[in-house]
Every structure is written in structure tokens, then in C-alpha cells.
Amino acid sequence: MKSSDIDQELFTESYCKVCSAQLISESQRVAHYESRKHASKVRLYYMLHPIDGGCPAKKLRSENGSDDDSVDKNKCCTLCNMSFTSAVVAESHYQGKIHAKRLKLLLGEQPTLKATGLKRSYTCNICNVTLNSIEQYHAHLKGSKHQTNLKNQ
Prior knowledge:
Blueprint: H1 3-10, E1 15-16, E2 21-22, H2 26-33, H3 36-48, E3 76-77, E4 82-83, H4 87-94, H5 97-106, E5 113-116, E6 119-124, E7 129-131, H6 134-142, H7 144-152
Antiparallel strand pairs: 1-2, 3-4, 5-6, 6-7
GO molecular function: nucleic acid binding; zinc ion binding
Protein name: Zinc finger matrin-type 4
Subcellular location: Nucleus
């Protein structure tokens, strides 16, 4: 499989598989694909998933030189697609909200209503989207993208 074929699978007009981002409009798509956060995640993705199918560069293995396929958790979180500069930074990430949220999504927990002050949001874990109102949430549940994701689950 050529690099361009892989890129077409990863980066479509409406979805970025590397970032798990749904792209609704042209301006959102352009902004996302040109962002630093996207570029960082793409670099990490290609480091962990080399195009030629060979060993990833530096494979982020633990310093003890083990040959198993495990990734050093002090250098990288494959769940969140993040790399770390030190064990302290890694530990901070693993105790943080972003990692906890992704872990909940991975475990398939139901959509939650979270109240933060006066703001409320509704999350669909199937599509990995957060909506601002109950009306948007219900409209999302009836939408074609959600129905497709529900069938593919």
C-alpha cells in the first residue's frame, strides 16, 4: 500500500482518523488539517505505524532493551496519541482529565451529561462528539452519521 493510499484512508473530507475528529464544514476541515495539534498527532502516528510495515523508528521501547511490542508508557500514550519528555509529564497525563475521558470512551461507557457551572454538554461516545444542548444531542442521535456509526459498532 502506497503512502498516498494510506493518507486517503486516514484523512478524509469529513473525518480525521488520526485525531478522531469529525469535520463538518470546509473551514473546520482546513483549520483542523493545518493545526499544530494535528501535525503533532500525525508525526506520532507515523512514528508508531511506519508506512513500510517495518519497525517504527526508535519504537519508544523502554530503556531495558526489551524486544516485546510494548511501548514505554513514560514516553508515549497510544490511547491519547501523545508523547512525553519525561516520566513526570507522563504521570501527570495519566492522572489527567483527557486520558480519563479517552479511557472511558475505550471502555464503552454511556453518554454522560456533565455540568460545569452553568454550562452543560452532552456526549455521544459512539461518535466521540460533545454537544451543547439536549436538542442538538437528540438531533445528532437521529442523524445519518450517528446511525452509520451505530450500525458499524
